[in-house]
Amino acid sequence: MSLRKDFLWGGAVAAHQIEGGWQEGGKGISIADVMTAGDNVTKKPRVITDGVIEGENYPNHEASDFYHHYKEDIAHLAEMGFKCFRTSIAWTRIFPKCDETEPNEAGLQFYDDLFDECHKYGIEPIVTLSHFEMPFYMAKEYGGFANRACIDFFVKFATACFERYKDKVKYWMTFNEINNQADPIPHHLVQEGGILPWDLEGKDYEEVMYQSAHYELVASALAIKAGHAINPDFKIGCMIAMCPIYPATCKPEDILAASRFMQGKYWYTDVHVKGKYPNWLAKKFARKGYNIDITEEDKKILKEGVVDYIAFSYYMSYAVEAKEDNPYYDYREADFVPNGYLKASDWGWQIDPVGLRYAMNWFADRFDLPLMIVENGFGAYDKMEDDGSVDDSYRIEYLGNHIKAMMEAVECEGIDLMGYTMWAPIDIVSASTGEMDKRYGFVYVDKNNAGEGTLARSRKKSFYWYKKVIETNGMSIFE
Ligand code: BGP
């Protein structure tokens, strides 16, 4: 069982979920700053408000206060032996509104300091440019990525980052989980595309989504071209949310449904990697009467700006049943059925380590590019004991089983895998629910859903476990 010697072991976070400091250093308001806290127990969803409203609870405003704790946090990662650390750059620290001509120096300086801190310990920063935190101003005044104008705003932002950090960051990703928009949930469209729910009224979700995703894909391709011109050694990837969709049974229609649903959720990878749309999508646009603005120039750009590697997140899998009222097997969540072979987390996420190996093979069969697993983790309620310890054996079990499946894919199927960054080494705000109590970390952060706590950091049981995993290049999993 051998992973490459320079295997990138680490962890991943996103700026808006960890940093806080929402108004520090000239930062503008991001879409994450106008999302209230939800709750898994009462099933209260996050709400997107029209600006910051007094008296509302916005968990991302302070988050885990990494903005002021980053030195302590990076020191914890170094203690575990991290080789890399994936984070994102908050767009609104660099361009607070989006249409300024010059970047904000204080914002750029914050990431200079952060990346220097990582390099001090030999930790390679891995950076996502847009991770659910585009400027609220861009969403409100321009309509987010439903507007072609936003392509230029993104490219300007990406170019400013590439130029500034060309000697400090080698690995980049353009848009986090660009394909989650396939699920018609308004918070996905706002997080991935910057489209506010009230701008969707009276419109066909899917048509808006295809348009927005297209402009993002063009923006991504242009950014990749710009990045490679700035530093030819840059490795710039896409980032796909991978939840494999299995057939519910071996009935041929279920098999076909699963295959078509995989197309519906993962075509974004085709465009990122091959620089062109699959044929079935043109057929679907025609059938649905969607009028998507895709120019000949766009097609050329997509071809020229393909990615260097495929990064993906993996948390769970789904199963689908063919339904008579869906004769074209169009992707839709309503056709999903529970998988009786799997258990789920307290948030209903089905636990499936084998699915990770399946996903790696699925990508490797279709695309001849290295892979990187940039998110995989277990959100759970942790309990701190009176002596300050946290026994998170369930997290160790989840991560251990997934790392084992990952290593089997490398060993048995020869998958070209660059690294593994679990989500998220330090407790942070959940993206889907806005909760602090949905914890993923090796490091506990003393703060609860109500926002109470000292923000003090402490090591959980899994901290020591992961340190050993890294030390042995994964071999301790088999002990
Ligand atoms: C992915 C996102 C992350 C992260 C993770 C866990 O979809 O890229 O930002 O949050 O999922 O999700 P959650 O925080 O909702 O538990």
Question: How are the SSEs placed, and which strands pair?
Answer:
Elements: E1 8-12, H1 15-18, H2 66-79, E2 84-88, H3 91-94, H4 105-120, E3 124-130, H5 136-142, H6 149-164, E4 171-175, H7 186-193, H8 205-230, E5 235-241, E6 245-247, H9 252-274, H10 279-288, H11 296-304, E7 309-313, E8 318-320, E9 336-337, H12 353-366, E10 371-375, H13 393-413, E11 417-423, E12 443-445, E13 457-459, H14 461-471
Parallel strand pairs: 1-2, 1-11, 2-3, 3-4, 4-5, 5-7, 6-8, 7-10, 10-11
Antiparallel strand pairs: 8-9, 12-13
The protein binds 6-O-phosphono-beta-D-galactopyranose (BGP).
Could you explain how this protein is built, in words?
By secondary structure, this protein is α/β, with parallel strands linked by helices. It has 14 helices and 13 strands. It has helices at residues 15-18, 66-79, 91-94, 105-120, 136-142, 149-164, 186-193, 205-230, 252-274, 279-288, 296-304, 353-366, 393-413, 461-471; strands at 8-12, 84-88, 124-130, 171-175, 235-241, 245-247, 309-313, 318-320, 336-337, 371-375, 417-423, 443-445, 457-459. It has an eight-stranded parallel barrel, surrounded by five helices. Strand 10, helix 13 and strand 11 (417-423) form a beta-alpha-beta unit. The radius of gyration is 21 Å and the shape is globular. The two termini are 13 Å apart. 50% of the residues are buried.
